[in-house]
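In the laboratory, one determines a bound structure by crystallizing the protein with its ligand and collecting diffraction data. In a computational setting the workflow is compressed into a single prediction: the sequence and the ligand go in, and a structural description comes out. We illustrate the idea with glutamine.
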Amino acid sequence: MSGEPFDTLVDTAKSVFDAASHKPLLEAWQGLGLAEIRADLATRLIAAGIEEGPDESRFLINHVLAPVRLADALADPALFSWQAADELAALAWRRLARVPLSQVLGSQPFWTLDLAVSSDVLTPRADTEALVEAVLAEAGEASARLVDLGTGSGAILLALLSERPGWSGLGVDLSAPALAIATANADRCGLANRAEFMQGRWGAGLADGSVDILVSNPPYIVSDILAGLEPEVRDHEPALALDGGVDGLDAYREIIADLPRLLVSNGLFALEIGHDQGVTVSALAREAGLVDIRVLPDLAGNDRVVLGRRVGAANQTDG
Ligand code: GLN
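The predicted complex, in structure-token form:
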């Protein structure tokens, strides 16, 4: 998308517009102290529909102050510069337009990592940590070839590699801009020596029996539901990472059908699912001949992961 000259033009126009538009906010803060600006920003965020306005006001201020601490800046007005106020207004302006906080700040904590994010990738969710935990609990420490289909920011791949020094990983994504973010994140996490990335559609570019552990958080939102989601998700996260088609299961059909080919015998797979997809995704896995299929919850108690294995060599019935 961003390669198109017209889109580039529109993006440039938008950023000029955005940069110009935060000036009224800066003017509204003229003559106010940091405590008053913080309160004003919290009120504006709440009015924009952001319930966590007070917390987010603090996060945004901390971001522009760093490394200066908020308590110090509240005590000493000289520590809150005009440049910091200008930067705060620019960030706040984007957040008030319901750009996700992660994209405004440019990064998002996930697992023990801090990952770069942009509108080209799904912001890593805490829910997805359930998938990381499930794989760590299920897989041994022995060296393994890990593949993450639709890797996006690289969150799942990098979290798992960070916990298993003997593993190497490959992240696949259809989106070139997403792969650029994932590659940067591998560097940022010091994992570039064990992480590779490849452009492709799910497992299509991978050899038979080349995967010990396969993970994926594919798009699983029912298309019709997308339009009703929060503006942060609907307008600012990539539809490619969210839209699961008419029944939300398009990506699972493609991925699961290919698992018996991709996995080594006894190979493990773990897929993130929507809270109401445990039965349907398990059934797809069973139909594909996969075994040991289980549904696991996230921390909120919602079904979030389907995992299982390719049948082991000793139990193989299909010759
Ligand atoms: N859990 C995400 C959301 O609700 C969706 C992620 C996905 O489609 N893989 O926004």
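The beta strands are 107-110, 113-116, 144-149, 167-173, 195-199, 211-216, 263-272, 291-297, 303-309. Keep in mind that any predicted model is a hypothesis to be tested, not a measurement.
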